[in-house]
Specification:
The protein is mainly β. The chain has a single domain, classed as Immunoglobulin-like (Sandwich). It is built from two helices and 13 strands.
């Protein structure tokens, strides 16, 4: 645990995550990325457009230069869709490096994964606690997702709504709140599976998405 603590402190001092201002809907703030994790090579351009309403965070993921559209059609909600192609967001309320955050994923088949993650070391240290708390009744909880594949234009996108109540934000009070978020995309083909290429808005310094000092700073304006 001492080693994990020291690693966390070093990451906090080293990382310089990006910032984004997000307006109320229908205006949008846009996070975009086109570099791999962690080596910063070329990656297919990816965008996440965000806004907030009275009761939700709304996101539009767009994956460009897509050639694979690769997923397992047998998978359902909260199964291991991250092993194939997905777009993801990690979200925590507040401006500190979070220990607990929402992980949301969607794949080209419009299958979703949503769970709260407890990552007390903030870096998913080996041998340390790392817990997943699934949200299974998504419609009842207020999640929505709609995914469109445009194969002749090599893109796919998902429009997603995540309820603000999950973060104890009362209806109509999101303006002025500060958040930590990150956005990710995985790329893999049938002939390269399970070896994925990873991309991120705020790239961690190794091939792991669960390193919270690298989460970007987001403010709802």
């Amino acid at each position: 645990m001492a080693a994990a603590f020291l690693a966390t402190q070093a990451l906090a001092a080293y990382s310089n995550p990006p910032s984004l201002q997000v307006p109320a809907c229908p205006q949008l703030g846009v996070a975009s990325f086109k570099k791999t994790v962690p080596d910063q090579k070329d990656f297919p351009p990816t965008e996440v457009a965000l806004c907030y309403g009275d009761d939700s965070i709304d996101l539009a993921f767009t994956a460009h230069n897509e050639t694979n559209f690769y997923y397992d059609p047998s998978q359902g909600t909260n199964e291991a869709i991250w092993e194939y192609e997905v777009m993801e967001t990690f979200i925590a309320l507040g401006d500190k490096d979070p220990q607990t955050y929402l992980e949301f994923e969607v794949n080209p088949n419009n299958v979703t994964f949503q769970a709260f993650i407890y990552n007390p070391t903030k870096v998913r240290a080996d041998g340390a606690p790392f817990e997943t708390f699934y949200i299974n009744n998504t419609l009842e909880a207020g999640f929505t997702a709609s995914t469109l594949l445009v194969q002749n234009q090599q893109l796919w996108g998902s429009s997603v709504s995540i309820p603000l109540g999950l973060f104890n934000v009362e209806s109509g009070t999101a303006k002025g709140t500060k958040w930590r978020m990150n956005f990710f995309r995985t790329v893999v083909a049938q002939d390269t599976f399970p070896n994925q290429t990873l991309g991120a808005w705020s790239s961690p310094n190794k091939a792991s998405f669960h390193i919270t000092p690298f989460f970007g700073h987001v403010e709802f304006i």
